[in-house]
Amino acid sequence: MCAISSRLGTGTASVKNTVCAKRHFCVQNKLQRSQERKGNPLKYDYKTHKEMKWWLNPLFRAGYKRRLEEDDMYQVLAEDRSEKLGQDLQRIWDHEVQRATKELRKPQLTGVIVKCYWKAYAVLGIFTLIEETIKVVQPILLGKIIEYFESYDPNNTRAFHETLGYAAGLSLCTIGLALMHHLYFYYVQRVGMKIRVAMCHMIYKKALHLSSSAMGKTTTGQIVNLLSNDVNKFDEVTIFLHFLWVGPLQAAAVIGLLWYEIGPSCLGGIGVLLILMPVQSMFGRLFSKFRSKTAALTDSRIRTMNEVVSGMRIIKMYAWEKPFAALVSEVRRKEISKIMKSSYLRGLNMASFFCASKLILFVTFTLYVLLGNTISASSVFVTVSLYSAVRLTVTLFFPSAIEKLFESRVSVRRIQEFLTLDEIRKNTVGLPQDEKDAAVEIQDLTCYWDKSVYPIFASTLYHHYQSSLLSSILGELPAEKGVLRVKGQLTYAAQQPWVFPGTIRSNILFGKELNPQKYERVIRACALKRDLELLPDGDQTLIGDRGATLSGGQKARVNLARAVYQDADIYILDDPLSAVDAEVGRHLFEQHYKVCVCVHRSGHMVAKGTYTELQQSGLDFTSLLKKEEEEEQQQPHHDTPIRTRTLSQNSVLSQTSSVQSIKDGDQLPAEPVQTFAEENRAQGTIGMRIYAKYLTAGANIVVLLAVVLLNIMAQVHRDPPVLQEKLMASSNMTNNTENGLNVTKELDMDFYLGIYGGLTAATIIFGFGRNLLLFSVLVRCSQSLHNRMFSAILQTPVRFFDINPIGRVLNRFSKDIGLLDSNMPVTFADFVQIFLQILGVIAVAASVIPWILIPVVPLLLIFLYLRRYFLRTSRNVKRLESTTRSPVFSHLSSSLQGLWTIRAFGEEERFQKVFDAHQDLHSEAWFLFLTTSRWFAVRLDGICSVFVTITTFGCLLLRDKLDAGAVGLALSYSVTLMGMFQWGVRQSAEVENMMTSVERVVEYTKLESEAPWETQKRPPPDWPSKGLVTFDQVNFSYSADGPQVLHNLKAMFRPQEKVGIVGRTGAGKSSLVSALFRLAEPQGKIYIDGLVTSEIGLHDLRQKMSIIPQDPVLFTGSMRKNLDPFNQHTDEELWSALEEVQLKSVVEELPGKLETALAESGSNFSVGQRQLVCLARAILRKNRILIIDEATANVDPRTDELIQKTIRDKFRECTVLTIAHRLNTIVDSDRILVLDAGKIHAYDEPYTLLQDPTNIFYKMVQQTGKQEAAALLEAAKKAYDSRSRPGLSNGHAVTADGNLVIFETAL
């Protein structure tokens, strides 16, 4: 029943947006520390970045000595803050949405991004232009130097001085190139980061405002994927975009210069280039096609993962790991097939880049020679250098730009679709202000959840009309017809309690300032006082994801306390009394001024009024409430609670608010509370072991050897042509000067061209072959690691999920696996290619001019030292970047679960601020990642430009000893080597950084595993035939180092016996169930029909017991899959089970009946209906043992009655253990087991226990109030009288000294 209570007084305290959400791993402190963190050096000295990033040196020194922590990061710059960036972009987007609505078109997100960032980004095009111009000028200067050597005259000093000028120009070009390149890269990556951060801000903001219909069109998985993978495309696309216009410009300039250098022969090579460009553009389009398909599959996989991780406890108890593994592996298989196709395309793209230069040079020089020209050293080297300048742009950057552009278009489209989903419209009309009291007025209201089905308040499709009425008052359910007016401040307590990661206090205050007196009153009123005394840190205890560290009752009471603490006029409480006992319920309602009770039947309002008015109206509404009418005294004048709930002590800890307070000395043990460990970050270098694990995951030794061989073959065939060109140049020159015989020259040419052509063809074949094979292996590695990680996650004990937030696990499955799927293969293949090319270049150069090795060796040593020095810090930064990303996902996941609560309290802005704070923390790590990469690259390029300068002037010094060919080789190679060397070292560092993702995935493949699912010892097929359960000296703790929660338990549950289990919070009721299901391994022995449960496989055990859990869990998929994931039952059996639980009519009215796909987590069903689905699962399993874990805590009395009736009828032949929530459900049990502090306090028939005033059960019954206690005693007596008793109490007896003796016969 719904209670809408309004209190006197209209003064509402101002909501202060204090961020008091204290995250797991104490993120509150982190966020505060980030405010106090070192100021960003760029903020104070904006010119430092133009130098060599000296301000990073202290960080590198620290990183070299120790592991970097979050305190070492610099504060994020003001212009990079998530809030500022998000609001700027949001403003333009809102404007675009308004315009699009007027013009009747879809809003365009691409235009919004361009409008917001085009100025900052366009300026960076100048850097690119200058950089690419330098690349074109370099070969001309090189040509001039070689020309001097070709026509060398020792006496011509003028020519020598000119050449010195050219040499100085060449050196300046290399230095200018180094600086320009890194300035450009740093700034474009900053722009990419800004777009990504702004986009994340907008996505989260949108998620907070989604309407209920829009929530049905998206899923948590999709939103996580948008935040983890789609937005990353902005980081990538900004790097290459300028090459779309610089590329063609540069190509045009190079064609002009080539025409001047070698005439029309250049057209052959340019032709090859022009053919390559459209082919690669076509690849780009294909990429985009595969990307959108992959993204949809990734969404689906992450959504499933989110559900699996959230519902792992239930999955394990049902032994449903295998169907979920099949589900995920099927989605993953489809995803990998798309990734494999796009990887092959990438491989072809890279191979075409690798082979392009050889093909172009072969075509050009063949034409040049066939046209009868004579090759000179300068023409060879200038041509080669010009081609390599344009080749990088045209065959690598230009296609990358197209590929990234198409990929980001897909991402923009997906984000745009999400941003244009319907938002919630709070369209309640305010009441006239002259009315004194707060009020809610409803007239002729008709509402729809979904227009395609009947209206909520006029149909029998859904049974949660009460919740729907509240939803419409909250504005979550839009009114179709009628009037709904609300005056006053609202507050709301949801039926399914929601708590967010943080302290208990921050959950109750929920952004309000602490008023100690009021806070204390609320704590007492909501029966939380005793809970807080028991928890180790009181109200500062950290709650984990989904409140994993609290019991169901505690969560519900925190949820209620949050609503009560707010200064509101109207309190909307959706079934809050399931969390408090009758006394506390009365106490709560006595504090409120008015109580309005509406009675609904099938969506129509039958009557309304106060509780007393309805009782006197003669309407049979008490059949709904199951209120006992045998009252001994006159109905009191004040309003009484709507529904009397009788509760076990599990949900009522605090008796401070009850009349009977706990007696002195009746102390309870502190309940073990799990706190969240900080996320693991590996330390030190990434060992060869991780590389070996990564590569052997996807291929065996033979395949890996084949890859190595192919790589070597491709390189060997690629490099001789270079040597060949030089020899051609030398031989032609010799032939011309010394020997004019044409015959010899032609013979030589045929011979050379034949070999040259053969080598070029071999290069192409091996180049393409090795890339396809390498990419195939690397994608398989990713697939294999994902599968291993998932199977490890499924087999790890439940405790892992209690101490690790969802975001942390999802981060591994979304971001880290995403990196391994798409980025790792490209970077790894590129590194291998560059590494082999460097070796090839050095080998060829050394064979012609051995002295070139003299500067190469020290250079190599300096590079390797720098790389090692850099990686120490870089790895730490990358690991920090990974761990600071997890809270972003956790916060999103948590916010989506409590969306209605956040909106009802009007706390969207505060949650947005917390999200922005998490984003800023991540941006600090990302900023360091960008700047440290540049620090490294600037130093590498600096060293290289020194090398080029030395080589250039060295050649001029040794001008008497060198010929033109050797000088050309030395100079062109030093320039090539400079680019290659530093790129190679950077790619190797990048691979090492990406290996941190492999390391994180590998860490999860080695999680502690629970006992095997099946063992050699299999129970008989009909086991258990009786359902006799015996606990023999059982001790239990949730982890090896955790406290014991059950102590030396000895008890027996006879076949077909109905046993109620009661006790205070922390008494061990749920632990008893955990021990029975072996969610952690118990010590001692548990027998079921004489078989020791620890000797058989977990699936054999868990499949033979049914459980109806406290929190009903449904999974995305069809209703059939939710009832019968193994497809073991016929349609008739499924319909029959649904009929038993009165859900048949509901499911029949769904569009696809049993095949209807449920919304995420079954959110299109009410909590009661979800609980009934769990009951139907238990009916289908037909097991001899049924455990009911507070199953009726969140359902209305009618559903409760239905569940109890079904259990009595359908499970008459079963042993039923019920963890009691309402005492009236177990008072007629055969026996009641009373637990206290993990020990058996008493175990007997209810009536017998009620004869002993010292008994805990007796006290619990008394605390329900006089009339309820009398009714319970009467019910217990009635059951006692009607029962026939065997002589011996259950095969065990209590001796005089109180010890429990289990008889042999019982075992």
Automatic annotation (TrEMBL):
<keyword id="KW-0413">Isomerase</keyword>
<dbReference type="InterPro" id="IPR011527">
    <property type="entry name" value="ABC1_TM_dom"/>
</dbReference>
<dbReference type="GO" id="GO:0016323">
    <property type="term" value="C:basolateral plasma membrane"/>
</dbReference>
<keyword id="KW-1003">Cell membrane</keyword>
<dbReference type="Pfam" id="PF00005">
    <property type="entry name" value="ABC_tran"/>
</dbReference>
<keyword id="KW-0256">Endoplasmic reticulum</keyword>
<dbReference type="GO" id="GO:0055038">
    <property type="term" value="C:recycling endosome membrane"/>
</dbReference>
<feature type="transmembrane region" description="Helical">
    <location>
        <begin position="936"/>
        <end position="958"/>
    </location>
</feature>
<feature type="transmembrane region" description="Helical">
    <location>
        <begin position="751"/>
        <end position="779"/>
    </location>
</feature>
<dbReference type="GO" id="GO:0008559">
    <property type="term" value="F:ABC-type xenobiotic transporter activity"/>
</dbReference>
<keyword id="KW-0597">Phosphoprotein</keyword>
<feature type="transmembrane region" description="Helical">
    <location>
        <begin position="377"/>
        <end position="399"/>
    </location>
</feature>
<dbReference type="InterPro" id="IPR003593">
    <property type="entry name" value="AAA+_ATPase"/>
</dbReference>
<keyword id="KW-0868">Chloride</keyword>
<feature type="domain" description="ABC transmembrane type-1">
    <location>
        <begin position="752"/>
        <end position="993"/>
    </location>
</feature>
<feature type="domain" description="ABC transmembrane type-1">
    <location>
        <begin position="122"/>
        <end position="386"/>
    </location>
</feature>
<dbReference type="InterPro" id="IPR003439">
    <property type="entry name" value="ABC_transporter-like_ATP-bd"/>
</dbReference>
<keyword id="KW-0067">ATP-binding</keyword>
<keyword id="KW-0472">Membrane</keyword>
<feature type="domain" description="ABC transporter">
    <location>
        <begin position="419"/>
        <end position="650"/>
    </location>
</feature>
<dbReference type="InterPro" id="IPR030240">
    <property type="entry name" value="ABCC4_TMD1"/>
</dbReference>
<feature type="transmembrane region" description="Helical">
    <location>
        <begin position="348"/>
        <end position="371"/>
    </location>
</feature>
<dbReference type="InterPro" id="IPR017871">
    <property type="entry name" value="ABC_transporter-like_CS"/>
</dbReference>
<feature type="domain" description="ABC transporter">
    <location>
        <begin position="1029"/>
        <end position="1262"/>
    </location>
</feature>
<dbReference type="GO" id="GO:0031901">
    <property type="term" value="C:early endosome membrane"/>
</dbReference>
<dbReference type="Pfam" id="PF00664">
    <property type="entry name" value="ABC_membrane"/>
</dbReference>
<dbReference type="InterPro" id="IPR036640">
    <property type="entry name" value="ABC1_TM_sf"/>
</dbReference>
<keyword id="KW-1278">Translocase</keyword>
<feature type="region of interest" description="Disordered">
    <location>
        <begin position="628"/>
        <end position="650"/>
    </location>
</feature>
<feature type="transmembrane region" description="Helical">
    <location>
        <begin position="691"/>
        <end position="714"/>
    </location>
</feature>
<keyword id="KW-0967">Endosome</keyword>
<feature type="transmembrane region" description="Helical">
    <location>
        <begin position="239"/>
        <end position="260"/>
    </location>
</feature>
<dbReference type="GO" id="GO:0005789">
    <property type="term" value="C:endoplasmic reticulum membrane"/>
</dbReference>
<comment type="similarity">
    <text>Belongs to the ABC transporter superfamily. ABCC family. CFTR transporter (TC 3.A.1.202) subfamily.</text>
</comment>
<dbReference type="GO" id="GO:0016324">
    <property type="term" value="C:apical plasma membrane"/>
</dbReference>
<keyword id="KW-0869">Chloride channel</keyword>
<comment type="subunit">
    <text>Interacts (via PDZ-binding motif) with SNX27 (via PDZ domain); this interaction accelerates MRP4 internalization.</text>
</comment>
<feature type="transmembrane region" description="Helical">
    <location>
        <begin position="965"/>
        <end position="985"/>
    </location>
</feature>
<keyword id="KW-0812">Transmembrane</keyword>
<dbReference type="GO" id="GO:0005260">
    <property type="term" value="F:intracellularly ATP-gated chloride channel activity"/>
</dbReference>
<dbReference type="GO" id="GO:0016887">
    <property type="term" value="F:ATP hydrolysis activity"/>
</dbReference>
<keyword id="KW-0407">Ion channel</keyword>
